[in-house]
Amino acid sequence: MNNTFLDARLSQLNTLIISVFAALLFAASATAQVWPSKPVKVLVPAPAGSSLDVIVRGMADSLRAKWGQPLVIENKPGAGGTIGMDLVAKSAPDGYTLGIGFNGPIAFGPFMFKKMPYDPAKDLIPIILTTSQPNVLAVPANHPAQNFKEFVAWTKTQGDKVSYASVGLGSSSHLSMELLKTTAGFEATHVPFNGSPPAALSVAQNETQALLAVEPALLSLVQGGRLKLLAVTSPQRLAARPDLPTVAESGYAGFDALAWNGLFAPAGTPADIVARINADINAAMADVAFRQNMQKQGLIIGGGSPSAFKAFIDAESRKWGAIINKVGIKID
Predict the structure, then answer these.
(1) 37-132+260-327 is classed in which CATH architecture?
(2) CA pseudo-torsion sign 195, 196, 200, 201
(3) Cys-Cys with 72: which of 41, 100, 244, 321 at CB 3.0–4.6 Å?
């Protein structure tokens, strides 16, 4: 075989490789330009009217305008959010089915559930952190403690008489209090309830002595003089309640416990589509009316890149996994 023949074959091979590479680039570019060519579905693993539902609907008009396609919102509550996120994980990875996940079925679930129908780390792509929300520490209105330091000191005089309510086993309300107990070094018995209303009422009636929950769920009892708030679990004070100190500034530097949520796509969704959705949602969340609406509900606006969201989830999983394992929470 002479050199001329070899050179000709190598030249043909190089031409073929370049052609294939160019075709792939064109296909990727075409995908980005064409998407979306039909309605985009967003699965909400919580009931209509929930904070997750409000977040998606709050940005729907902006996204419809950007995408030129309807945004179809479907509520799929149940099983701690895993039903809805499982549907997302098993959807076609084409950018037409998204889901708004939260810490429960993303960061808590793998440590709590004996068996999950999907692997959040492998079956879902994080797109963007949408919002986060701290819990506030509520106690009965006539509680002797006037701040968090006094509350901790009080618990240490009560022996085994202190109990705390939560909005459910394995909830952010439950796990944040367990982290708070570990951080501040006090003891209290967990009493789970099915949601915020009965949990808050138990504290107002002094059947339990404390509750960590999102502030809007407690507002009526606070305004009615039946509960008082001692601290907030975010790193900074809430804009809507600047008089409420953080746990971190109350002697426990670095304490941070937030409920959070964000948009996810099925694994395998093209990177250019993920980048497009990320950019458009960042823009939608920059809208002044959207930000004001979220802040009124005590929500902290998120944003950022997919990689930043993934790093955040990884850190949250490590942090809460340790708490879940320590407490020994296991759900069938």
Answers:
(1) 3-Layer(aba) Sandwich (3.40)
(2) negative
(3) 41
